[in-house]
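Re: your question about Oxidoreductase

S., sorry for the slow reply, the queue was backed up all week. Below is exactly what I fed in.
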Amino acid sequence: MSGPAAGTPYWGPAELPPGPELHGVVTADVAVVGAGLAGLSCAYHLAERAPGLDVVVVDAEHPAAGASGRGTGLLGPRAGPAVDRAVRRFGPRTARRMHRASERAVRDVLELCTRLDVPCGLRTGEQLVATRSAAGLAALARQARACREIGLDVPVLTPAGIRDRVGVPYRAALVHRPAATLDPAALTCALARACAGKGVRFYGGSPLLAVHPGDLVGPELVLPHGRLYAGKAVLAVNSAATALALPVGTVLPLEVYAVATEPLSPAAYEALGGRAGHSVVDAVPMAPYFRVLPDRGLVAGGGTATVPAGLGAARLRAAGERAWGRLERWLRSLHPDLAEVRVTHRWSGRIGMTGDDLPVVGPVRGFDDVWYIGGCCGHGLALSVAHGAHVAAALLGDPQPGEPLPWHRSRAPALPVRGPVRPLLRAYVDTLGRVARHTC
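Result:
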């Protein structure tokens, strides 16, 4: 996440491996562009499994500077559309495989945290997808029915069951496991340090300007002060794909928002799931969510998104002020003890959305030996790590197990994001936000 309205995230800075700017001509076996979770996961798995491979990571800023360091730390199973829509679009067998893959991705992150010994405030707990509205209740009923039909273990909670976990008057909830909460910046920086320890070279402050098919040694990556020639390249650049004119379909940049509070009273902390570390996500699209923090504060996000394309810095800042104000009002509605709680951090940043809610993880058409990862649609904490491992295996020539998942593809659907239709797209996203806020 980045952008003019970015603000200061709750997550503090971490010690990072040195990353000088790339100058002159540099060569590598594999170049990874993007030092977020997807790119670093790819670099880590390459270095882990092929110790002699020369891997270079290049970033426009530094590790964890983007979405991976500015998220809200909700680790839960979700890949693509809600399970009932996945069943309608892909059939029950594929929908089940999609959900199982997202559960595996969560377990892999938990295992990675253990392996790296990450001091990232990791707390395992349940993720509740809950609702206080009639529209959300209908959505949860459809999802619960679909889960039963395809054999997924996703329990339904009554209001009494919810009260045992969080003291907010929700009408129903689905329980997703495995799930956890953590500091995403700490995990990202731990991956960077692990990569550096395995010999991966880092260059920071070096935004990618262009990619050209190579004549002899693979792709050529053009940077402000030099060129990087690699046998293979991985572009873990998310929504920056549009600015680079990569032929990966539309990965739409959206600015999303979050706030964090001072420590809560003991009563509010326990009422909002503090002891067990639960997180709660509302059931309607783009709806708010919350989780507690290790210092007994609370993080809330969602409810509003902004299409930043075509907005100047002043208008984007104004949109951020409105979004943060709505989030603060919503979190104060959760519990009486939150009426006067002080908000200590407000931040925002960019995620990548696609027209069908599915990521894009695959080779870039027209470019030999270039792969792209992006478009996790706000569910990137577990999926990004999984995507990086998947691409590393593909680059090393490992056969991919089973059939491809729907997001193992080279392109997302095209969306009309330029010209006179852009205001319509912005109005559509604004409408989703208003509907979400009304139904919460």
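The longest strand covers residues 343-353. The mean pLDDT is 91.

Happy to talk it through on Thursday.
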